[in-house]
Amino acid sequence: VRSSAASDVYKRQVIGSANSRRADYQTALQLIESGRIKAGAMVTDRFPLRSAREALDKVASGEGIKIAVLP
Fold this sequence. Notes:
alpha+beta
């Protein structure tokens, strides 16, 4: 993943499994926002955006469970 243009747009996206319904996401986000669930504790690895390729490789290898790529 490479990007250097100032006009590039980044967005946040929630991606889930095929077995989740829209209502499940709404409930999960409410629990996270309220602080009842600590989502950060579920993330096994964090990578800066410049290391997105490394993050994807870790996912593909099966080494990471929940990996976040941060801007």
